[in-house]
């Protein structure tokens, strides 16, 4: 049997095509998310970086300072001046 | 590789990958799985494909070939079919249709000979493309192809007498 005869014989064996219902696999959502990118214009990026730097540079009372209250902070009032507030009558005021 | 390119690759090459897997495994369900796995590898990591090295079809067939090999190694079918132990038994012309007998003869070849023959004769890959796909030298592919043809000549000799 020569090569041509063999080839002719081999090609009597046909393979089916892929079933028509098959669909290509899609990329998982996390892979899409991970592979996504956003284009930012350089001036916008520079402004954002500058804003962050300025925000960091502004001195602010720290969180602990603001929340820390000691008993010694409560001092007696040097001079007590009591004021008696009577009932306020709107009609009297108008007259 | 964008979604559109994946769709185009699927449209153009799914049949070739399926046919190859079907001829190698003889199982429609295994061929479907291998087809999906080959494209999933491309979808997961499109950077694997280098257009400068090989056509996309050859690349997908190479992935399918590796999937088939992994399956057979898992099922211990790869080692069982060693080339040295293979004996080419002539087919019985009365045992079925010519196409079935040819199919059975091809599928009985040792895996390395079978993949070389299927990729060359049916999928029409060049020797260089096959060598790249199966990670072997061109000389080794030529030798496997030659042994496959010789084995098939012996097995299919009874069909030569004009029976169709």
Q: How do you describe this structure in short?
A:
The complex is a heterodimer of chains A (95) and B (164). Chain A is mostly helical.
Strand proportion of chain A, as a percent range, falls in under 5%
Structural class of chain B: mainly alpha
Q: Roughly what percent helix of chain B?
A: 55-70%
Domain tally of chain B: 2
How is the CATH topology of the largest domain in chain B named? Arc Repressor Mutant, subunit A
**What number is the mean pLDDT of chain A?**
82
Tell me the distance between the termini of chain B. 47 Å
Any low-confidence stretches of chain A, pLDDT <50, length ≥5? Answer: none
| Residue windows where pLDDT falls under 50 for at least 5 positions of chain B | none
Q: What is the CATH class designation of the largest domain in chain B?
A: Mainly Alpha
Q: What's the order of the H and E elements of chain B?
A: HHHHHHH
Estimate the mean pLDDT confidence of chain B: 87
Number of strands of chain A: 0
């Amino acid at each position: 049997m020569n090569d041509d005869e063999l080839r002719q014989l081999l090609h009597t064996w046909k393979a089916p095509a892929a079933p028509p219902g098959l669909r290509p696999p899609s990329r998982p959502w996390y892979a899409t998310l991970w592979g996504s990118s956003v284009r930012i214009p350089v001036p916008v990026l520079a402004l954002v970086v500058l804003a962050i730097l300025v925000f960091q540079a502004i001195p602010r009372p720290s969180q602990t300072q603001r929340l820390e209250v000691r008993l010694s902070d409560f001092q007696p009032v040097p001079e007590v001046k009591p004021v008696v507030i009577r009932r306020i009558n709107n009609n009297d005021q108008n007259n | 590789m964008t979604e559109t390119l994946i769709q185009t690759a699927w449209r153009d090459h799914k049949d070739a990958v399926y046919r190859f897997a079907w001829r190698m495994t003889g199982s429609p369900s295994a061929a479907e799985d291998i087809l999906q796995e080959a494209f999933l590898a491309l979808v997961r990591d499109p950077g694997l494909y280098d257009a400068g090295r090989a056509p996309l079809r050859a690349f997908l067939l190479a992935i399918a070939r590796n999937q088939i090999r992994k399956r057979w190694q898992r099922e211990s079918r790869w080692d069982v079919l060693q080339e040295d132990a293979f004996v080419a038994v002539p087919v019985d012309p009365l045992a079925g249709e010519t196409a079935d007998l040819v199919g059975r003869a091809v599928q009985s070849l040792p895996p390395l000979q079978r993949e070389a023959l299927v990729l060359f004769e049916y999928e029409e890959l060049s020797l260089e493309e096959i060598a790249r796909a199966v990670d072997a030298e061109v000389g080794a592919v030529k030798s496997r192809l030659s042994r496959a043809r010789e084995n098939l000549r012996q097995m299919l000799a009874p069909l030569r007498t004009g029976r169709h």
